[in-house]
Design goal:
With 128 residues, this protein is mainly α. The protein has one domain. The two termini are 16 Å apart.
């Protein structure tokens, strides 16, 4: 997948996740933590909104970084994406495996984003 298309795809996925979390933070919190109630539930909803905002920031930076022309800079940016998405995948995967939260779909999404960025990074290496 070409570099610009990879970053566009990543930005679009992150934006959709952010929008979903902004539109219904209580619903997402209820599905992830079904036994949360009272103040704990309210705090979780607030944190969900903060996470949604941070995801949008990352999506915006990723989208506007598509204009980078230097192969070395593209590799560095993709390395950051690979590392960040892999950490997210591992974190939500562990949370799902230990039954702290039900985040299996998030683990798959971040695994796919990691793989796509890794593929693009390798492709840039081969083109040099």
């Amino acid at each position: 997948m070409p570099y610009k298309l990879t970053l566009t795809f990543c930005a679009a996925v992150l934006t959709l996740i952010s929008l979903r979390m902004h539109i219904d933070p209580a619903g997402i919190t209820a599905s992830e933590f079904p036994y949360a109630e009272g103040d704990a539930f309210d705090v979780a909803v607030t944190i969900r909104r903060l996470i949604a905002s941070l995801l949008f920031v990352i999506a915006s930076i990723t989208f506007f970084a598509r204009g980078i022309e230097s192969a070395k800079s593209q590799q560095s940016l993709l390395n950051g994406c690979i590392l960040g998405f892999a950490v997210m995948c591992i974190t939500v995967g562990i949370m799902t495996a230990t039954q702290i939260a039900n985040l299996a779909i998030a683990a798959v999404v971040f695994a796919v984003l990691t793989a796509i960025c890794l593929f693009s990074r390798i492709k840039i290496n081969l083109n040099e």
